[in-house]
Amino acid sequence: MKRIFLFSVLLMLSSSTIIFGQEGTKVKVDSIVSALNAKDAGKLLGMMTSGAGIGDLEDVDNKLVLPAILKNFSSIRSYVIISDDLLANGNRLVSLSVSYGDDKKGKPTLTFNREGKLLNLGIIRSRKRVNAELALKDALSAATRPDTLSVPFKLANGLIYVAAELNGINGYFLFDSGSPVTLLNKRFTEQDKQVRGVSFDFMGMGGKMDSLVWSQGNMLHWAGSIVPNLDAPASDMGDRELPGGLNYLGLLGYGMFSDYQLTFDYQRQLLLFEKVDSLGKLIQRPMYKGRLVAKAAMNMTRHIPVVTLLIAGNTYRMGLDCGANANVMQTSVRKDIGKSFDVEEEGVAINGVGSASESATSGYVMGASIGSLRFEDMFTVLTNQSIGAGSGEQSLGVVGLLGTPFLNQHRTTLNFKEGTISFYK
Predict the structure, then answer these.
(1) Contact (Cβ atoms closer than 8 angstroms) between residue 90 and residue 114
(2) Whole-prediction pTM value?
């Protein structure tokens, strides 16, 4: 008798759900759409359970929030039910494809309980904001990193690549001091740990990068450093490979080494890292770099070291960026440096991070100096592109970037904390 009773209850529950699914969904949705278009918060609240959610908003008072949402809600011109799913807990999830009055498209969802009351009115999604620089600092606080590092690198197209392992995959990162953070190749991150709908800016030479996801819980090994649980932006970099078929893992930015003094040695293809304190004082004995030939002031603007370069009697604030295989300057300086710029080619293409290719002029800057140190002719591109991005307090205030043609002339040491640049022979 007990078995028959249980069977009968299950049959009744199942039947009522089927009736709602087959005959009641369209009526329910029509009623909700009508209330949305009428901006009738009272009617919608009457259709919702007392603890119902609105999209992915957390801990809000529906009586206060819903009228504010409806005030700016564009009316629904038409809709199609694209799925009507019975969930394991007996609730029902209805997904819609909607055309709004402002000609935009959307895919809101409606979640009902067994009684047909709204558990979630999925008409809004908040965009989670993340701070990639703070996330990197958090990961580094739990990382294992030596006080000194001597890191071999490969040069490809004038750019530095360092060996690393990302999530068990061996490959190379572009070493890019012009990026504030580490950017991962989405291809080598775990798909189920990729968070979309996240809002953050990634500033490159030309501005923001689009089409990024937030990748969580990555494991990074590089140059004796172990960085667990790394959360970072990840981008679709296609099937890009380095010469020899090596995996391109992404780029390592300034935040990964900002607490080190950094030396570029292009002749031996080595990067030297020396841990410093908050004032830029070395924690360990200095690594050998050769004979010091010059030292000058350098100041940090955002993540970019800035130096003063003298050309044809004029001084220019220039950012340092090892992720640039050519020096870059704004076209407006051409009339001032005059014969100190030897034109090689007009109409060359230049690409900045996150920006389209633009036409520019290439040539050689001659006779440039910092203090008493004179540099050999440096390959330089003149462009109208925005250099450094940002505005107001976020503006770099530079007229150009010094990349490989500048850094490869000497062993060049940058002490970010102390604010100095040193040159060795």
Answers:
(1) yes
(2) 0.70
